[in-house]
C-alpha cells in the first residue's frame, strides 16, 4: 500500500479543496446583508417616511429594510424631512421607532429638528410630550438651542406672555438653566416679535440672571434706532461687560441701516484704534448702508478695499453689492458680480438669485425670471420659498401654466419651498383656466406630502368637480381632507392647544 499519494491525484485533491474553500467563502458573503451607502440609506428612509400611509406600515417597512439605524442616519433623514415639508406625524413615528432601539440615544440635533418639524405644524401637544419623554431618557439632549427652537415656533402664533410662560416651564426640563437659556428667549423675541417686546422682557427678567456679553449682543442686533442702540451700549459698559467685535458690528449695522454712514465709519475707526480687526460682517454692513444712500459704486469699491486689509468677501458681501446694483436697476453690473463670485469659487445662494427675481417680478419679465431659474437648476442651487413665490406670482399674472406646473413638479421631486403658499397661487391659476385634472393632481400630490391645502383651494376645485359631475372623485378629495379635520375643527383645536395651560403637559 502506497503511503504517498501519486502526484496527479494529489494535484486533483488540492484543486478540490481550494474550489470548496472558495465556494464556502462566496456562500458566506451572500449570507451577509449588503447595506446601502449612507446617502442611499437616507433616501430610502426618507421614502419610507413620506410614502407610508400608517404608523404600522412605516414600522414594518423600516424593519424589513434592514437598514442599520445610526445617529448620522437619523440626523440626515430628519433634516431631509424638515426641508421637504413632509408629514410631521410620520416623522415623529420614525423618531420614536429609532428611540426604541436598544442602547440608542438621539443627538441634540435630531431632537431639535424633530421639535422644529412639529412646531411648524403647530403640534404643541406632541412637542411637550416628546420633551417629557426625552427628559426621562436623556435630559442632556435638551439644550439652550432646544429652548430657542421650541419658543421660536410658539412665538409665531402665541402672545409674548404665552411665550414667556412656556420659557419658564423649561426650568423643569433643562438640566442647567442659566444665562444661555435667557439668551435663547431674548433671541426668539427679537426674531419673532418686536424689539420693544424683547427689551421689556429683558428688564423684567434681568434680576433672575446675570446678563453676559451674548445677552447684550443679541439685544444690540435687534435695535432699529441708533439712539436706543447707543443707550444700550452704554448700559453694557456700565455693567462691566466689555464689547467685542460682534457688539461693535451691531452698532455699525444700526448706523448703516439708519443711513448714518459717517457715524458708522467713526465706529470702524475706533475699532481699529482699539486693535479690533474689522471682519467681513463689518464691511458688509457698510456696503448695505452705502446702497441705502444711493452709492452702489462706492459700495463696490469697499468690496475691493477689503482685500487690502486681508479680509476677503464672502457670499453675503457679494449679495449686498449685487442688491445695490439691482435696486439701481443696473442688472448688467449685478450679473458681472455674480459671475465674479463663481470665478472666485463662491456659489451663489437662493438669496443671491432672489435679488434678481424681485427685479424681474416688478419689471414683469417672465423670460429673464425663467432663464435665471434654469440657471439655478443647472447649478444645483435649490430655490427657497421666496424664490418660488416670485416665480409663481409672475406665472399667475402671465398665465404660464406649463412653467407653473414644471416649477411645482420640481418642488415635489426635490423638496424645496412651501407647498402651502405656492399651491394657493398655482391652484388659483389652474382653476381660473379650467385645468381641473392638473389641479386635482397637484392637490393630491400635496396631500400625499402630508400638507393640508387651504380651504379656498379646496372649494375652488370642488366647484369645478361638481360642474363636471365628477362626484366620485370629489368624494375622494373629501376623504383626503377629512384626515386633516374639518376647517372649523382644525382651527378650534389649534386655538385650544395654544390656550391650554402648559401645566397640563408638564407635571411638577
UniProtKB/TrEMBL annotation:
InterPro entries: Mito_RNA_Proc_CCM1, PPR_rpt, TPR-like_helical_dom_sf. The keyword Ion transport does not apply. The keyword RNA-binding does not apply. It comes from the Eukaryota. PPR repeats lie at residues 244-278, 279-313, 314-348, 349-383, 419-453. Keywords: Repeat. GO terms for biological process: mitochondrion organization; RNA processing. GO terms for cellular component: mitochondrion. GO terms for molecular function: mRNA binding. PROSITE patterns: PPR (PS51375). NCBIfam families: PPR. Belongs to the PPR family. P subfamily. This is Pentatricopeptide repeat-containing protein. It comes from Fraxinus pennsylvanica.
Amino acid at each position: 500500500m502506497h503511503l504517498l499519494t501519486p502526484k496527479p491525484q494529489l494535484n486533483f485533491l488540492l484543486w478540490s479543496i481550494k474550489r470548496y474553500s472558495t465556494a464556502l467563502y462566496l456562500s458566506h458573503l451572500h449570507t451577509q446583508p449588503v447595506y446601502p451607502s449612507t446617502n442611499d440609506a437616507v433616501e430610502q428612509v426618507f421614502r419610507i417616511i413620506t410614502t407610508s400611509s400608517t404608523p404600522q406600515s412605516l414600522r414594518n417597512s423600516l424593519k424589513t429594510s434592514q437598514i442599520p439605524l445610526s445617529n448620522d442616519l437619523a440626523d440626515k433623514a430628519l433634516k431631509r424631512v424638515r426641508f421637504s415639508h413632509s408629514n410631521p406625524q410620520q416623522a415623529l413615528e420614525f423618531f420614536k421607532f429609532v428611540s426604541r432601539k436598544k442602547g440608542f440615544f438621539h443627538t441634540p440635533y435630531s431632537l431639535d429638528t424633530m421639535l422644529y418639524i412639529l412646531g411648524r405644524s403647530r403640534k404643541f401637544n406632541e412637542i411637550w410630550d416628546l420633551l417629557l419623554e426625552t427628559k426621562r431618557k436623556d435630559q442632556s439632549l435638551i439644550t439652550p438651542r432646544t429652548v430657542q427652537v421650541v419658543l421660536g415656533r410658539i412665538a409665531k402664533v402665541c402672545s409674548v406672555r404665552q411665550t414667556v410662560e412656556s420659557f419658564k416651564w423649561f426650568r423643569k426640563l433643562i438640566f442647567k438653566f442659566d444665562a444661555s437659556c435667557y439668551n435663547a428667549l431674548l433671541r426668539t423675541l427679537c426674531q419673532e416679535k418686536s424689539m420693544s417686546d424683547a427689551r421689556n422682557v429683558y428688564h423684567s427678567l434681568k434680576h433672575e440672571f446675570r446678563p453676559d456679553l451674548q445677552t447684550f449682543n443679541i439685544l444690540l442686533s435687534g435695535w432699529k434706532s441708533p439712539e436706543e442702540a447707543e443707550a444700550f451700549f452704554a448700559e453694557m459698559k456700565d455693567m462691566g461687560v466689555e464689547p467685542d467685535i460682534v457688539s461693535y458690528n451691531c452698532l455699525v449695522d444700526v448706523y448703516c441701516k439708519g443711513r448714518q454712514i459717517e457715524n458708522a465709519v467713526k465706529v470702524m475707526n475706533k475699532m481699529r484704534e482699539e486693535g479690533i480687526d474689522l471682519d467681513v460682517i463689518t464691511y458688509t454692513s457698510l456696503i448695505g448702508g452705502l446702497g441705502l444712500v444711493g452709492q452702489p459704486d462706492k459700495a463696490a469699491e469697499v468690496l475691493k478695499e477689503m482685500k487690502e486689509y486681508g479680509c476677503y468677501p464672502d457670499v453675503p458681501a457679494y449679495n449686498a453689492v449685487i442688491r445695490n446694483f439691482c435696486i439701481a436697476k443696473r442688472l448688467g453690473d449685478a450679473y458681472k458680480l455674480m459671475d465674479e463670485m463663481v470665478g472666485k469659487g463662491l456659489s451663489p445662494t437662493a438669496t443671491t438669485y432672489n435679488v434678481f427675481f424681485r427685479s424681474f417680478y416688478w419689471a414683469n419679465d417672465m423670460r429673464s425670471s425663467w432663464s435665471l431659474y434654469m440657471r439655478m437648476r443647472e447649478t444645483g442651487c435649490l430655490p427657497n420659498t421666496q424664490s418660488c413665490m416670485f416665480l409663481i406670482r409672475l406665472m399667475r399674472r402671465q398665465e404660464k401654466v406649463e412653467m407653473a406646473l414644471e416649477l411645482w413638479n420640481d418642488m415635489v421631486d426635490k423638496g424645496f419651498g412651501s407647498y402651502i403658499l405656492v399651491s394657493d397661487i398655482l391652484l388659483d391659476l389652474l382653476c381660473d383656466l379650467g385645468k381641473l385634472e392638473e389641479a386635482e393632481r397637484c392637490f393630491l400630490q400635496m396631500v400625499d406630502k402630508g400638507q393640508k391645502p387651504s380651504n379656498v383651494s379646496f372649494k375652488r376645485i370642488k366647484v369645478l368637480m361638481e360642474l363636471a359631475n365628477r362626484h366620485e372623485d370629489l368624494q375622494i378629495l373629501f376623504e383626503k381632507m377629512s384626515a386633516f379635520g374639518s376647517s372649523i375643527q382644525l382651527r378650534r383645536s389649534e386655538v385650544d392647544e395654544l390656550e391650554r395651560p402648559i401645566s397640563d403637559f408638564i407635571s411638577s
